[in-house]
Amino acid sequence: MASNSFRESKRGRHAQANHDVGDFNCSLKELRSLMELRGPEGITRIQECYGDVQGLCTRLKTSPIDGLGGHADDIARRKEEFGQNVIPPKKPKTFLQLVWEALQDVTLIILEVAAIISLGLSFYRPPDAERENCGKAAGGVEDEGEADTGWIEGAAILLSVVCVVLVTAFNDWSKEKQFRGLQSRIEQEQKFTVVRGGQVIQIHVAEIVVGDVAQVKYGDLLPADGVLIQGNDLKIDESSLTGESDHVKKTLDNDPMLLSGTHVMEGSGKILITAVGVNSQTGWCRRGDAAPKHQPTKEGKVCAPGEVDQISGADRQSSRLSQFVIIKDIFLFHCVHSYPFTCPGLFMSGLTVIILITLFMVDTFWIQGLPWVADCTPIYIQFCVKFFIIGVTVLVVAVPEGLPLAVTISLAYSVKKMMKDNNLVRHLDACETMGNATAICSDKTGTLTMNRMTVVQAYLGDRHYRVVPEPDLIPGKVLDLLIMGIGVNCAYTSKIMSPEKEGGLPRQVGNKTECALLGFALDLRRDYMTIRNEVPEEKLFKVYTFNSVRKSMSTVLKNADGSYRMFSKGASEILLKKCCKIMTANGEAKVFKSRDRDDVVKKVIEPMASEGLRTICLAYRDFPPADGEPDWENETDILTGLTCLCVVGIEDPVRPEVPDAIKRCQRAGITVRMVTGDNINTARAIASKCGILQPGDDFLCIDGKEFNRRIRNELGEIEQERIDKIWPKLRVLARSSPTDKHTLVKGIMDSTVQEPRQVVAVTGDGTNDGPALKKADVGFAMGIAGTDVAKEASDIILTDDNFSSIVKAVMWGRNVYDSISKFLQFQLTVNVVAVIVAFTGACITQDSPLKAVQMLWVNLIMDTFASLALATEPPTESLLLRKPYGRNKPLISRTMMKNILGHAVYQLTIIFTLLFAGEQMFDIDSGRYAPLHAPPSEHYTIVFNTFVMMQLFNEINARKIHGERNVFDGIFKNMIFCSIVFGTFVIQIVIVQFGGKPFSCVCLTIDQWLWCVFLGFGCLLWGQVVTTVPTSRLKFLKSAGHGTQQEEIPEEELEEMEDLDEIDHAEMEMRRGQVLWCRGLGRIQTQIRVVNAFRDTMSPYEGLETPESRNSIHNFMTTPEFRIEDSEPQIPLIDDTEGEDDAPTKRNAAQTLPPHSKLATLPSSPNQNNNAVDMVIPLHKESPKISGNPESAVLPACPGSPLNSLETSL
């Protein structure tokens, strides 16, 4: 334990220097050399040059007690003299650099070269007499005027390439700008606590200057270098700079040097800032050119230029952008290269070129029988270049290079919107990963609860008070000890402030549990600040700070007579075990035996905990001078023999929005587990209030001790098989340590008992939560209560510490996944159609129906515009109605493949019909077999225009990927989509009507335009036909991809889906239709038998179904499920999502089938008026056990006559 290492002197208290006179007595170089020293060397330098830390403060014109005065001119002068606390980020790439990078694309380079060759050869003219010897395709004299414009095509291709490059560069620039904005937002969130003008305030990290006195505490990430002024049990993790994982104790006597980029792992204290920004140790390592030679990086190597990214800690604060970009690039690489589109594209483009050249050679030199003429060689080369350009355009369209752009836009858009939903995303890939989360391990305090704690019950003087007692009821001696203990044994950074608004609640600053105790002192009408003024922090003799191992905090005071008094507070059941006495109602201490302790636990602590209260024990101990100086390092002896003062119950209300958020998570297939350090009874009560535990659920609620007993073998080793027996049913883990949380997370992630592997999200706020946050697939840190260490280890920061924000993150994550799938569905449809049209058309007509410039325009529609339109779809609540996809589900599901192939069939049919019969349909000249420099034709313009129109309408179809019929649902909520579709349509009009030769287009008439739009609109109608076809009927699609994994579907639904791979709306509608027919026939038969019963005056039930098995039409309309025997397994309706955690029994098991009926029906309503509202059947709750008689399992029948039965049926 490190003792309080600062002893106040009168000179130090009044050492505030005149900041307006004279220069600083320390140079930047002097301070820099000081901070390069460690341990005894640093102490020696301070003693030789300054005398002590007080002397250094005097030289820097600051006070160790009151800090800087905070005057603006003084702060500005310090920034000018010693630098700002900012490490400049890496200079962003200029727009020209991004243009140059975009030009490196291989396909664009090939197009550029081919276009330049085509442009040069287009100016060559063979002699007119010999032109006919070059073949029919070269054209005749009548085409000479058109030949003069042959250069336009090559120039248009070059211009298109320039447009593509500029658009790509602009997209990269905007992405870079968004990432810079994200980096700026993160930096703005970072604040640090300093003392200025005697007031403790929080300022932005960039505003810290040399001479500031900063308060450091458990969990902080040090933003600058400093020298320790006063410390309590301070331990620092310097692994980010030295590579050593052991925590380093910091004391004035041992090692007072604290470095930027290191983490405070234990304790608290004050430091004098001596170096900031590029002059700090982390800044030196970043600069690399002049780093201290002995300063190693994380890998143990000396800092050098180019190794900046290896530095962690504060360095990460200014280099997170590079982390984002690296993660993004890796993520995009996997996205693009997961689908081998490039090889088929290369094959098709190469095959197209070979076939075109072969057909040209055969036609010219064999069919036409023309000899080789030297003057025609440039013409032949022009043809080859033209064919080559066609092949390259096939390649451009075949490869979905827009996928990285779609992923990036979707992620960037989601990240920007998630900020408004209180999710600050640090790692972009976490955004998409969160959409597939199957488990959330959540903290309790602040996340599920409001983190505004109040003492509401107390056990004082052998009496349990259900409300805070009046001070008169408490013995004076006990009250004095209680207030003294609360005042000095709570961190001095914790305090109760006046409310911001008149009539509001007081503000709680610092640790909320300590604020509850300080509020308790105020409720007892005593001022804790009086105690703190009498005993300032510097006079505390010894502080044992709270950590996850101790689960308590103790502060030692030295009395004037040489004795010591220690105040302790901590978890009640732990601290009571260390108490041997307890204060009574008369203010005297009596012996506290184990039997008495059991009574207190049973009668006080457990009732408090069962009400959801956190129980804290307050105790003290005296050390008489006669016993000599205690061994303060021996905690076991020190923290024993305590006298219990009181036990308080602290209320932390559940956030009102949390129960609904947890219900939405459970409905979405996500299991929520509470992992807390609180008492197991408190945890169970809060879990029940939140909805994590439901009455009658067969789930586990255990504490850390029991958890470790179950998962470890006889040798104390953790076994995965043992964890696998616990975690599926575990819902609450109480009194857990950070190690327990890490073990649980790792056990769930490594488990193979459920396939696919679980995707785990974890929330954490403490320094020791770092390992669990890093281990989890997605780590959430608390933005308000979280430490810097936890934030540094996390992927997403919850700026409001609210669990409901996690649900929003799930929704956005699923939306990212679906947005990418939507884009893929659209782009692959265009890919398939464009490649087949270009390849088939070129092979048959020796020319591509879609020209190179037109292909580049189509590619622009596919890539940039479609990315913007489909990747910016806002999320909807329906995303939370499905189960997580799992880790191994491909982006292209079978339903998507059905849509891609279905729409491709329609588009290919239309295009080929127009290509080979369009001239007859529209009574125009054919555009097939045109010479080399022939003018654009109406025929091919109609083909091109219809193709683009079909893509525009198919873009609307692509908004739905699960077979939904209403593709317009929510379309006007996405104005980006509407704007892009409308803008593309307008540009297409301009291209067709005014594009002319560069775009190979001619003006079309109104009638032709209407036909093109009508054929494009047909995509929407055809989409309804494709949607109607159930995916399960298309067995051949299995090879193209599989749908939802069986493990992603609840067991009760699996029983009804035996042969079905994927849930799609067409299948549901078909099932619904079949059931309606069967129910209708069954009802008609029932009614006929009822009429016959009356006619023949038969017994009321003779020849009829029993009343128990009949349903009214009202009941049918309110019944979400039904079963038909001897029919195929059906898919539950989409709203059958409740009760998924119930026992996996068959649904409606109690509704057995009468022997003479094929229709299993639900019991009829006891309501004689057949009011559908009264028909409430707990479909998903466990049914009563079925006896031997099948009719005994149903609900009691309502008495009725055949008339009543007829009325019910009707």
TrEMBL record:
Keywords: ATP-binding, Calcium, Calcium transport, Calmodulin-binding, Cell membrane, Ion transport, Magnesium, Membrane, Metal-binding, Nucleotide-binding, Phosphoprotein, Translocase, Transmembrane, Transmembrane helix, Transport. The keyword Calcium applies. Residues 47-123 form the Cation-transporting P-type ATPase N-terminal domain. GO terms for molecular function: ATP binding; ATP hydrolysis activity; calmodulin binding; metal ion binding; P-type calcium transporter activity; PDZ domain binding. It comes from the Eukaryota. Residues 1126-1210 are annotated as: Disordered. Gene3D superfamilies: Calcium-transporting ATPase, cytoplasmic domain N, Calcium-transporting ATPase, cytoplasmic transduction domain A, Calcium-transporting ATPase, transmembrane domain, HAD superfamily/HAD-like. It catalyses: Ca(2+)(in) + ATP + H2O = Ca(2+)(out) + ADP + phosphate + H(+). It is a multi-pass membrane protein. It is found in: Cell membrane; Membrane. This is Calcium-transporting ATPase. It comes from Oncorhynchus kisutch (Coho salmon). The lineage of its organism: Eukaryota, Metazoa, Chordata, Craniata, Vertebrata.
